[in-house]
Write a structure and sequence with these properties.
327 residues, alpha+beta, 2 domains, seven-stranded antiparallel β-sheet, 6 helices
Length: 327
């Protein structure tokens, strides 16, 4: 259980990954290392009542709430393991997380609080040809925070000696908060209110904007055949052109635009994609569904394609002013 492995588990486990929200003064840390943050109170009407959010192989189902409710419940689920032919439907789903949620009609945001999650033993393997084969390796048992910590502690116990107790427990604490921390996203709907879209919420800017008006480059791995070592090198095929608040990323001919946030002390940047090759979510959703697909109906298919085209998880990237690179 090196740090990269633990972080990989958390990213895979939260395949629907939401934007992690910072803790406030009322947060408390329990014996599992999880910082328990209370949900915000609901504001206004719940527009998500009874709605389903679709991504490629996953969905979030929001419960129906009535007037005066202080929260609702939700389920995250992923398509069950198996082989799916071109005409087979994604009818079987494995529930991988349950919890409660609240809403803010004024800000158009929804906040989720996980209560139980499924563990995962290995990577997420999806083989796509004419027949799709899904092997997710999720446990069928949903576990609370204490059970989840014990699950991953046992799974990676052999690495405790290599890492040391302090580092081992620190990584477990990080993972626990990544899995069970509250998450907040903005919501919107397609024309006709037939599809639910969720978008990441960027953190607040910190420090001085060192990116505005600049062009940065992505990196790629380079292998040195003489030494057998790998290193990151500037890749001129990956460009980021920044304005005061927006960016344009060109990656091998594909163009993504959106907004960003920065922390000039930590040298971190976060991206929020808003168009891909000139299309936003509404435009992608409006594209007609094929005659044969695996979703329950055409609306679900189109919503899954639109949401899949944009990252939902908030990820920080390191930037270097010295060589104008972003890792």
């Amino acid at each position: 259980m090196k740090k990269s492995i633990l972080l990989g588990v958390s990213v895979i486990l939260l395949v629907l990954g939401m934007a992690v929200v910072g803790c406030d003064d009322s947060s408390t840390e329990d014996s599992t290392g999880f910082i328990d943050e209370p949900l915000p109170v609901p504001i206004g009407d719940n527009a998500l009542s009874g709605k389903i959010f679709y991504k490629r192989y996953d969905k979030i189902t929001f419960s129906v709430t009535t007037g005066g409710a202080v929260n609702g419940t939700y389920e995250k689920s992923t398509v069950a393991d198996g082989r799916y032919g071109p005409a087979d439907k994604f009818n079987d789903y494995l529930v991988i997380e349950t919890g409660i949620y609240t809403w803010n009609e004024e800000a158009k945001t929804v906040t989720l609080k996980p209560e139980k999650v499924a563990g995962q033993f290995a990577g997420y393997d999806i083989l796509e040809v004419e027949v799709i084969e899904i092997q997710s390796a999720y446990t069928s048992l949903l576990m609370n925070a204490a059970e989840t910590r014990a699950f991953y502690q046992t799974l990676y116990e052999e690495d405790r000696e290599e890492m040391g107790n302090a580092a081992f427990n620190e990584e477990l604490n990080f993972l626990m908060n990544d899995i069970f921390g509250n998450t907040t996203n903005r919501y919107s709907f397609s024309t006709g209110n037939t599809a639910l879209f969720l978008d990441k919420v960027l953190p607040a800017n910190k420090g001085t904007n060192e990116l505005s008006g600049q062009t940065y480059y992505g990196t790629s791995w380079d292998y040195n055949y003489e030494t057998g070592e790998t290193s990151r090198v500037k890749d001129m095929n990956k460009t980021y052109v920044f304005t005061a608040s927006g960016f344009t990323n060109t990656l091998f001919g594909s163009i993504t635009t959106g907004s960003y946030a920065y922390d000039s002390t930590a040298k971190n940047v976060w991206f929020k994609e808003e168009t891909v090759d000139g299309k936003n979510k509404a435009a992608i959703f409006a594209e007609p569904a094929p005659f044969v697909h695996r979703y329950i109906d055409d609306n679900a298919y189109c919503a899954a394609q639109a949401n899949e085209a944009f990252h939902l998880r908030v990820i920080s990237y390191e930037y270097k002013t010295s060589d104008k690179t972003i890792n």
